[in-house]
User: Fold this.
Amino acid sequence: MLDKILSSDFFIKYSDKFNTMLDNAEQYIRETDNIKIVSFSLMTLAGVLFLSLIIIIYIRNIIYFVKSNNPKEDQEEREDNYIVLSAEDANLELERELQKELEMAQAEKQARELAEQEEEEKRLAAELLEAEEKKKEKKKEEKEFRNQENTNKTQRQKNNKEKKGIDLDWQKGKIPPANDMENTMVTQSISTTYQQSRKELQDLLGLLLDMLGRGVDDLKIAQTLNYKMQGMGEESDIIKSIDAVKIFISLCVSGKFTQLEKFAELPGEEQALYNLANGDPSLALALLECLMDSSIDKANGSASEEKRQQLYQEVSVYACCFGALAELNDIMLATSSYELAIELQSSNVVAWNRLGDVYRKASSLPKAAWAYQNVLNFADGEIDALEVANANKHLSEHLYAEGNSIQAAKLYNSSKQYYDSLGINRRLDRQEIDIISIIEENQASSISETIAKLLSPENVR
Assistant:
């Protein structure tokens, strides 16, 4: 820097003086005619130039020497550059370390989450396996119980035959003493009390109607039916049977059947309920079929699209009720009814759920899985919680059979949590069992009164 300043100042001053000297020399030459003087002047000028060159070289050497002995300024400049570069490198290094720590933290988090997920999947798979084992054990116990019951029945028949063949001759035999006969009857009574035979859902419709007539809530009815079926019934079958009977009663009370043109030719509502109480839903199905046909005819003849869709939606509900009652003894008729309900309202979650049930019972497992998947597609998690739980339960069985035990365990656990929260599988206490026994004892004699109560206008809900 100093070298540049000194060189520029020197050349400026030198050039000014040199120009002045040239001007003086030129003027002098013009004024004189003496060639010697001119020659002397030129030589003098050359000598001055030569001396000037030597001076310039000398000054430059001095400048270089001074700079070489005083490198402080350059050193400071280099240090400033180094400090800037060092700060940038430090920031980059810090950023790299932070990024590395972040990546390590994320990797640890992912590993931890993966381990937790694997642990949860193992737990769910173990629960599913345990549930399957319990189910097999329950079926085994039921089979043993039935075998024992058949053995007892055979023994009782054999004893009856022996009693009929008793010889009244005092030399050959005696009629058992009265006390022994009473003890035998007490023993048989105790045996039948604690070896209660399992009942099918169709045989429990009278008890269902009786409890509805007494104002018992749906959950308690479901627990009772589950108890009478010894826990071997499907939760969805029990609940949909209760719903179907209640819908049929509400249609009777609201006058839907009496408004039909062919009502006079149809079975009476009281008779339909009486037969239903005895396990025969045929008369109720006849009333429902006529109602569905009438409503479909009205919908097809309506000029309003909104009215037509509303009627189709109502018929879809009637078809689900029809299917639930038909399913008690005619699964093919029930299947057709549920398919009709879906045809009229494709988003009917209840119909899809029940269609999956009848497909499963008919061993059409791929169709059942398809129907249950549509339940999950159309369902509202809160409104259709029951249908979602049933679909998850049977989809878990399908996935487990295909070898996808982890996903099956998740669906099964979700379904189990719902039914546990619902309480349908809760065991009845001794007092509740005694009350059920009393209701069953009076069921046959009070059925007419119960039906009249159910069909009264005050029963409209």
About this structure: The mean pLDDT is 78. The chain has 16 helices and no strands.
